[in-house]
Amino acid sequence: MKIVVIGGGxxxxxxxxxxxxxxxxxxINERCSTTPTMGNAFMLHGDGISILTKILNDESLSVPGxxxxxxxxxxxxxxxxxxxxxxxxxxxxxxxxxVSLMSVIGPSVMRFNRVFSHFLYENGKAVAAVFENGETxxxxxxxxxxxxxxxxxxxxxxKTAFTKVEVQEILGIAHHPALCKAxxxxxxxxxxxDKGLSIGFMPFSDTEIIWFNQFDTxxxxxxxxxxxxxxxxxKHVLKDFxxxxxxxxxxxxxxxxxxxxxxxxDPLPSFHVNNVVLMGDAAHLAVPFTxxxxxxxxxxxxxxxxxxxxxxxxxxxxxxxxxxxxITAVSEHLDLGRKLKFDFLHPQQIDDDHIELPLIQKKIxxxxxDARKDIQIIYFTDPICSTCWTIxxxxxxxxxxxxNSIDFKYVMAGLLPSWKNFNRLGITSPSDxxxxxxxxxxxxxxxxxxxxxxxxxxxSSYSPSIAFKAAQLQDIDKSILLLRRMNELxxxxxxxxxxxxxxxxxAYDVGLDAARLMRDLNKxxxxxxxxxxxxxxxxxxxxxxxxxxxxxxxxxxxLVGAQTxxxxxxxxxxxxxxxxxxxxxxxxxxVFSKYPSITKKEFKFLTDTNDAEADLILSELLKxxxxxxxxxxxxxxxxxKNEASLLFHPGYVAxxxxx
Length: 659
Hints:
By secondary structure, this protein is an alpha+beta fold. The protein is about 40% helix and about 20% strand. The protein has 24 helices and 25 strands. Helix 1 (about 10-20) packs parallel to helix 3, helix 1 (about 10-20) runs parallel beside helix 8 and helix 8 runs antiparallel to helix 9 (about 315-345). The longest helix is centred in the middle third of the chain and has 31 residues, at about 315-345.
């Protein structure tokens, strides 16, 4: 089968590579007279990276660019609005990717200087593509990947009804090694709070940064026809932004900048007519607020190739399947882009807490409703409660076994208001806590480093408790991860979790919006924490941890202090003898896919193994580099490979022995 691709951009060449490897005859027709290098740089989502890796790795080529894993949104006055961990993205220079793809496809497949004119048809099917230079290319299947202004699309579906251009975007590249180093891995964006104006930037190498200036077209009061126009406009409109923006603009050669008129069009009723099919921007165009364009192009190329494999003798079925599989996702991207554009143009109508990340994200499946759970356990705890830390093996196994039937509600009980007149079970000073923690660690088998109470004793446990309540305002599951992270910081890393910088980094590590958490620490989270304190007082809770078991909102049982797993199970089975129990021994793979960090005691408890068995399993995982192990003076900490770099701060890793 001969496949004729119209458009030699990323989508067209990627598809051509895939189909050529499958043994098809492929001809790619490009309007430029040589390899197209237009465009500056772009972001590629993890899905696109996977496809690109598969394409390039077969030729021993690596994916160009730099990893971007953090998004920070600020106001021009440097007020931080968002600070979040992102899905994996790669920032790369367009010409670097195009050159890599061209080296894979080879020159024999390419036909340059071919501007599409029209198709020749026989019996309703296209048999040849005709180009403005008079050349003709015959084929069996025709792929329209000729971009947003697609002539192929126009021939299939008539003139495109584009939306009005309300936002324009200037893209440039700055050569600035110092800023590349300072902002490595970070997508930084400054956005006005009172008008549609922003600038974002991110490094894609050790020396170059891509930047983009988005603005409401109503702000334009001068021609933008020449590089000097773009330079003067950009410097004028961003004059009140921070000094780093001036540094970027001063390090930019404006002769290579581009002005884009951002627009889109409604979803097409189909991506094909007979044996001609569209993909990439020719098939679906969204405004650039989602950064989805190149990812969608690569996804289209890969999926279209797969559907054509599925129906090798029925291109129409393949094209229909391709449309069915893509139309929902690309329509969602279109809707998201339009919403982000509206929010951008009307910033006064949205508060900081509800500003969305300007990128496509992985789909999160809806969680089952807690209302169906048989038993609610109200867990009174505190981030610095050592017994709450040492019973983590029991609690983790409890959730693994009965998680579908029990629901935990966390209440911050305020263990340490301050040291003034403090006396709880004979503990009156930091030195008492130091001794108590050493005893707890020795008898529990859970790692505890008590040195924080000598080198930097906490004055109160209130600020990390409020941080937990702030996390709950964003995401219940991530708030539990934050509590775990705070536990690790103080009990294992001996870090002071009352410090704002420590709390902010912990929030970022578990996927929360750290900037919002910092805002909520002094606002609504305080109120929610006070409600927890009031509940603790009303319920007469004097010892932590305390567990109150409720059925149909009625209190049935209490458990106070350190407990065995059997104690929890006994109460649960008493309250509901027919409760569904997941009585399966967890494998090592299941444990590390469920928990990004785990102590050796927790691993043994969850996998029901003894020391020798656990050591054998873990040594095999370590040999395969599937996990990472940190050996501390107070016990082993095991990290899943993907999370190891995120969970421990550099100072701790550098000082830890690794196994």
